[in-house]
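Shipment paperwork, digital attachment
Item: protein structure file
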Amino acid sequence: MEIRFLSHGSIKTGGYRHELFLAQTLEQNNVNHVLKVLRKPYDAQGARHLKLQWWGFKNTYSEMAVVGGRLALVALLRNVFSRNRIYIVLHHFDTEDGKSTALQLYYASLFHFLSCFKKRVQVIAVSPYFQAFFQQKLERDILLFPNFFDTQYLSKFSTTHKKKLICLGQWSKKNSAEIFVLAELLTRRGYECYFSSLNKDMAGQKEHYKIICFETYESYLQPLAECIYTIAFPAINEGWNRIAHESILVGTTAIGFKKGGLGNLLVESNMLSVHSAEEALALILSDIHPKANQSFIEKYDIAKAPLWLRYFPA
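Attachment content:
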């Protein structure tokens, strides 16, 4: 029997890694199934979005399939009257994130069908916040499968030799304008600030920060561990901030907005939440570093991932 994981995009994002790990964990727990990974390496815009939907419709028919939001509707329609089981991962949803009219209509249709068809179609959220959000919006049970990390491996990068370095999180159009206010305030006080990016074309030196595209995971983790703080200032409610989580595991304090799944992360880990750049600056200048909750670190270790499947329908 087969598990199919379908994805798309020119860059393998954190969402891709989460969905792939879910598919791998399902394969691990279903010994008679073999995982097949299918991917379209381009972003779905304009006519390409229609091509992606047709590709997804042709390829999502499988005994078990894992897809993200953009392929969810065709996967549902292709399999809903079969005995196949479909896992649809919805990382986050925010009406204020600038979706096009076409995408707004797409998600309205998807949510309608998810509310109607519940048998063998499972919706998965990555944070308690969005588990509750989608349960209310879709009027159905939502499964929870968060991000998991190799905590032992990441802890090896932890160091007491900190630099006057601040990670501003991942470069994204969905960052709040407050992050740029903070970068300027910090630069004036002699701090070095940087964003990480998965896109090489974005890399470069700006007035108050750098954008760095790291070649390897290790080259990304080393400076992250040398930072004194990592900042997470999303403009929208996001699912689960991977960089903030990774920062904690390499011994760097995270400061962020208490919103969406990021709020769950900050509370569970005992990190710092603020409402503005000025509040964050005050904490940084005060050099406050709360100790991360050990229970948080252990809860999201990769070894625990199969245990979360106990709550999945048989």
